[in-house]
Amino acid sequence: MKIQHRPARPARSLPRSSSGKVVAVTGGAGFLGTHLCEALLARGHHVVSLDNYATGSRENLRPLVATNRLTLIEHDVVEPFPAGLPRFDEIWNLACPASPPHYQRDPVRTLFICADGARRVLERAAEDGARIFHASTSEVYGDPDIHPQPETYAGHVNPVGPRACYDEGKRFAEAVFTDGCARAGLELRMARIFNTYGPFMHPDDGRVVSNFVVQALRGEDITVYGDGSQTRSFCYADDLIAGFLALMALDGDPSGPVNLGNPVETRMDELAELVVDLTGSRSRIVRRPLPVDDPRRRRPDIAKARALLNWEPKVSLRAGLTRTIDYFAGRIAAEPPMRLL
Ligand code: NAD
Ligand code: UDP
């Protein structure tokens, strides 16, 4: 693939305010994409969301269209960027199914969303001279044998297991962006995101926080996989987005990926009990089989983010869950079934 940094083209269709940038967000209609679009619009930028709505929803972004600075484009990121778009100052690459049941539904496609999605963003950024933000993941560490996980840890991923399509796709994308940006002289910011939750998750997303909260609110059994002793470290969406913005705005070279996540570690059986407590639900907590290759534990070492960005999460799990429960309580009754990949 030939990647050249060409002189920037002028914006074609979007007016530029004096301070506002023109930015693209792939996966803008998803859980994190919605929070990000909201934050970028609040800062006066023009945002173009490119999303095929596989796991995201136009409804998430509908209230933001009133800003007149948000353009929604239905687009599959494995294809080249659509014609007729303005020159972008920044491209934020979030498009990818992120929940295990969704990314495992068509594993080969997931691999190519990661791979071709990265290639298309890189090609377009090279044309525009845009700075790239890539949403990578703690899954690049696999089932870690170093704990907590610093960015220097190369990981422990099973390349042929059921999670490989996501883990290896994300690892490949990191390599594409690292080498491609170095060759094209482009600015790159890569976040390794640890489990994040909050409003705008889909009720049928399948990840643990939305599952437990929705099950508790519906009075259904709360499904703890395995014995519940496995851990994750949960970051509230607002904290994560503050980290995104700080990382993208960083002037100096971050020297590779930066972990963003909340270092407070929680067992899944404790999470289930906390959700029951906060919802006042009468749901039973039941056990289901632990999925193959499910990481036993995960916690970010955020020393790099603290030092580079002066960033750390502020929202406790209890406070973040309370806001998330309020959100789901307000919408689950009216939610149509999710359209799957
Ligand atoms: P999400 O599933 O809610 O959002 C993903 C978005 O990408 C959706 O809007 C979906 O429709 C879109 N998309 C998927 N395939 C596409 C395609 N081929 N073309 C165009 N759009 C496509 O998930 P999320 O939690 O918002 O995750 C966003 C990004 O952050 C993902 O790249 C994910 O891997 C990464 N991430 C998230 C977390 C987390 O805890 N939320 C953790 C680590 C990494
Ligand atoms: N999990 C669970 N019940 C559920 C969904 C998930 O116990 O209904 C567990 C899952 O096995 C894993 C943890 O919760 O150990 C986090 O799962 P999630 O899919 O949210 O994220 P990931 O495994 O990708 O970190």
UniProtKB/TrEMBL annotation:
<dbReference type="GO" id="GO:0005737">
    <property type="term" value="C:cytoplasm"/>
</dbReference>
<protein>
    <submittedName>
        <fullName>NAD-dependent dehydratase</fullName>
    </submittedName>
</protein>
<dbReference type="InterPro" id="IPR036291">
    <property type="entry name" value="NAD(P)-bd_dom_sf"/>
</dbReference>
<feature type="domain" description="NAD-dependent epimerase/dehydratase">
    <location>
        <begin position="23"/>
        <end position="261"/>
    </location>
</feature>
<keyword id="KW-0472">Membrane</keyword>
<keyword id="KW-0520">NAD</keyword>
<keyword id="KW-1133">Transmembrane helix</keyword>
<dbReference type="GO" id="GO:0070403">
    <property type="term" value="F:NAD+ binding"/>
</dbReference>
<keyword id="KW-0333">Golgi apparatus</keyword>
<keyword id="KW-0456">Lyase</keyword>
<keyword id="KW-0210">Decarboxylase</keyword>
<dbReference type="GO" id="GO:0048040">
    <property type="term" value="F:UDP-glucuronate decarboxylase activity"/>
</dbReference>
<dbReference type="InterPro" id="IPR044516">
    <property type="entry name" value="UXS-like"/>
</dbReference>
<dbReference type="GO" id="GO:0042732">
    <property type="term" value="P:D-xylose metabolic process"/>
</dbReference>
<dbReference type="Pfam" id="PF01370">
    <property type="entry name" value="Epimerase"/>
</dbReference>
<keyword id="KW-0735">Signal-anchor</keyword>
<keyword id="KW-0812">Transmembrane</keyword>
<dbReference type="InterPro" id="IPR001509">
    <property type="entry name" value="Epimerase_deHydtase"/>
</dbReference>
<keyword id="KW-0325">Glycoprotein</keyword>
